Amino acid sequence: MRWKFLKTILSIFIICLAGLIPVFNVSSVQELGVNKVFYVYIPKTLSEASKLDIIGIHDTTKVSVYDITSEPAKLVKEGNLNRMGLLTVETDKEVYYKIVSDKPVAACVGAGTMVEERGPCGAMVYPAIDGSFVGKNFIFMARSGGNVTYPYVSFTVYAVEDSFVTVKASNGTELTSFTITANSYYDVSGLIRRRQIIQVESTGNIIIVSWYGARFTSLPSITGDFIGKKFFGYINFYKITWVTPQTWQNDGGQGMFIVYAYEPSTVKVYDLLSRQLLYNKTFTKAGEYWYVHGPKPPAPTIAGNPPSEPYDPNLAPKHLLFLSDGDISVWSGDGGDSPSKIAQPAHFSGTGDITFVSGKNGKDFWFYAPQKAIIFAPTDISININGSTRTLKKDRYLTLTSGYYHIISDNPIIVQVQAGSGTNEYGTYLISYADIPVTAPETGIGFPLWMIGIVIAVIIAAVLLISKQRRKVYKA
To answer: Residue 144 has what pLDDT?
Structure first.
C-alpha cells in the first residue's frame, strides 16, 4: 500500500516537474497573436535620455519590450494599452530593443529636447493605423517643431488623392480641418503640443511627414511601399530672413535628397508648389544613386553684422515631387556636401538623425550608411552584403560601418540607418512587416539553481524510500 502511495506521489511530482520547466521557458516561444513586431537600436546621445513610445491603436492590446542587446534577452517592460494609450520606456544607454504586441501599435523613438515639451525635433513619417505610411486614418504622437517659446509641433500633409482632412485631439475634439487637392500639401502648425497623441481622418489617401533642419528621413511612395515611382519630399535649403535692416537669421541648412535606383529609370524632381522642374537624372542600372545638396548657408556672424559670405536671397526650403519611370527609393531633408554628411549641414554641430529603410519585399536593399546601419533578423537569415555572405540568428543584429551597401536576404530584415556620430537629438517612427513571426525573444529557461537542488533532493529521497520499501517486501 505504501509502495503504491509513494509511486503515485512520485509520478505526480514528475508530471508537475515536467510542466514547470516550460512555464519558465514559455516566453521564448510564446505566440502573442496577429500583431506587429518592431526592432530598434537606441544610440547614445550627447544630452537627454531617449524615449521609446508605443501608442495603442486598439483597446486591450498587450505590449512587451525586450532588451536584446545580449543573449538571453531581458523583459524590460510590459503592459496593456487601450486605443490612444501610451507606454514609454526611457533609457540613457545604448541599447537594442524588440517590441512585441498582440494587436497593431505605433512606435516611435527620440532623444534630446525633441522628446520634451520644447525644442526642435526630427524628420519622420507618421504611420496610418493599418501599418502603412499612406492612408486615411492615423493615430500618432506628434513629435516635431517648436522651441522654448513656441512649444507646438508642425507636420505636412501631402495629398495622394483629393481629400477632406480632420485633425482631432485624443478626446475627439476637432483641432482643425481642411480640403486638399491631389499632388499638393498643407502645413499644420501652432495647434498641437509635442508628445500629444492625435488622430487624423481623411476622405482620401494622404501622407503625413514632419520636417526639421539638420534631419532626414526615408520616404514612402504613394503606394505606401518605400520602393516606388512617385514620392513627395522636402529639401531644407537655407532661407535668410532680415529681422531688421541690420539683423538677419538663417532659417534652414543646406538641404539634400538622395535617390537609389532599383532598375534603369529616369527621375524628374519638381517644385511641388510651382511645378517647376528642378532636377532630372537617368540611371542606367540598378544600384546607382544620386545625391543632391544645396549651397552652404552663410556662416554665423556677430549680431548686427550682415553675412560675411555670399548668399542667395531668393533661396528657401522647397516641397518636392519625385516622378520616375522605374522603381526607386528616396530620402530627403538636410545634409552636407556628401552622403556621409547627411543630417550634418555646414555650420551645424552635434546633429544627426536615424531612419528606417525598406527594400524590395524587405529582402533587397540599396542604401548609403552615413555613420552606420543596423540589420535586425526577425528570423534565421542568410544575407549577402556587397558580395559577402553570412548568417544571422533570429532576434540578433549586425552593425555596418559608414559606406554604400547592397544587401540581399533570404527572409525579410529590418534596416535602421544612423547619420551623425554623436547627436543631441534624433527621432523616427519604427517600421515592421506583416509576415514577421510574432514571438518573444529567447529569455532563457530561468529555472533557479536553488529550485533545481530541491528537485534533485526530493527525487533522491523518493528513490531511497522506494528502494527501502522494496527491500522490506523481498525480506518478507
So the answer is: 59
